[in-house]
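Reader question, answered in our methods column.
A reader sent in the components of a multi-part assembly and asked whether the whole thing could be modeled at once rather than chain by chain. We filled in our standard form and ran it. Here is what they sent:
COMPLEX SIZE: two components
ENTRIES:
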Amino acid sequence: MAERERRMTRPYGGVFIAHSRVMDADDIHRAIRRMAHEVLERNHGLENLVVIGLQTGGVQLAEALAATLEEIEEVGEDEPGVPVGTLDVALYRDDIGIRPVLPEEVTDIPVDLDGKIVVLVDDVLFTGRTIRAALDALVDFGRPRVVQLAVMIDRGHRELPIRPDFVGKNLPTRRDELVDVSMSGVELGELQKS
Amino acid sequence: MSLPAPVHDPAAVRGPDPSRHLLAISDLDLEQIEELLDLTDTFVEVGRRAIPKVPALRGRTVVSLFFEDSTRTRLSFETAAKRLSADTMSFAVSASSVNKGESVRDTVETIEAMGIDAIVVRHRSSGVPAQIARWTRAAVINAGDGWHQHPTQALLDAYTARSHLGSLEGRRVAVVGDIKHSRVARSDIEIFTALGAEVVLVAPPTLLPPVADAWPVTVSHDLDEVLPTLDVCCLLRMQRERMTEALVPSLREYTANYGLTSERADRLPPGALIMHPGPMNRGVEVASEVAERPNAVITEQVANGVAVRMAVLFKLLGPGRAAGAAEALEVEEEPR
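And here is the structure of the entire assembly that came back:
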């Protein structure tokens, strides 16, 4: 889940104060291009690849990653491209009841996942709980051959044995800091309680 | 647990907290109605999956407490609860201690002592779910009480209409039939009006309640005249079991004047929806052929019913509604 969203829902509500800019728009695009090459290198091409963005922060990144993958592999307009899906994990979270979570965004998995190589995409990897929920959600849609994880920012503080396969940038943070990722850049800041 | 004297019972003074229960459409403001309808979209998508089940309400228990016959509403609620991974218990009055003379309150307290999170209630008397809500810490969902309310039916009607028509603002919705004895009519009027639609009631004078004059609706006794102006035509079942007086001369006469026959259905504008809460009396309020037309969305209503009830259960039991947390708050509020 995007931290942008988390900071707006109680009990985390408050005003985000950025104190440093970690990446700009060009950095984001360079990172996506590098990650795309890594995805292709690891999987020897595009065959059976499905890219799934986690709602809401991972969706734009997933689309950008899929577009870059197609560009690198020179997929023509009339050829089938990389299927891109979205996944809302709100109904699979283990912290329902601890904090309000309402599913607001759609889950849309366009293909059967049996035997596929799924690349999950999210903006920030923090405790790993969102990814845990996403793995649970994924198996309801089929049995992927492999699931790989691509994140723009790995900020540490994992609470579960989960690690990313493709990372835009490793960013050491304090627990109480917040990371804001968009296609125009990455900012590190904190929440001023309102 | 000792019973507090009625005057000292804060719940009795305040009435049940509408945010914890779903008792009537009028308890919801427009924002809450729209939130539930938007949430329903999510659960419609879940219903289309190969495995239409999510773990959102794991460990929660939902009891259906039906003092009156129902198959579709009860099954719909149980399906909804199961798709959210909640445990379900079903209380069939015919096989229970109610037949040995147990009061509703004792029944509710017994069920509650088993540790449950929600009670889905249907009763032939108006107000029973609201009364039960005062006696329990579980969320109470009204699945139909007397002639009063049937809020989940109204939500699924509104959802079905909205999914075909987009916004209901300025749309014309008719509710046709036995308005007087219909909880569905009362809930439908409230929800469609809240969503900005214009509601017209079509019924013989004997099947309209005297209070209809005070409702924000127009009344007509001529179905043929109303049909060409409609976006949605909600038919009600002729409830023979509630017809204690001779309110219509015969069902055949009712059909002749108010039944949606093939000829009448042709008068509807193209794209206008035909809805019915079921169970249908084919050949009475709706002709069999009409119920099979593409603009008759009656089976779609049933499918949407499961998703709407998932949304209601998730809203009441899901986010920020940990059973333990709610209980701790309650105890703080009113020490016993």
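What stands out: The mean pLDDT of chain A is 88. Chain A is about 25% helix and 30% strand.
Send us your own complexes using the same form.
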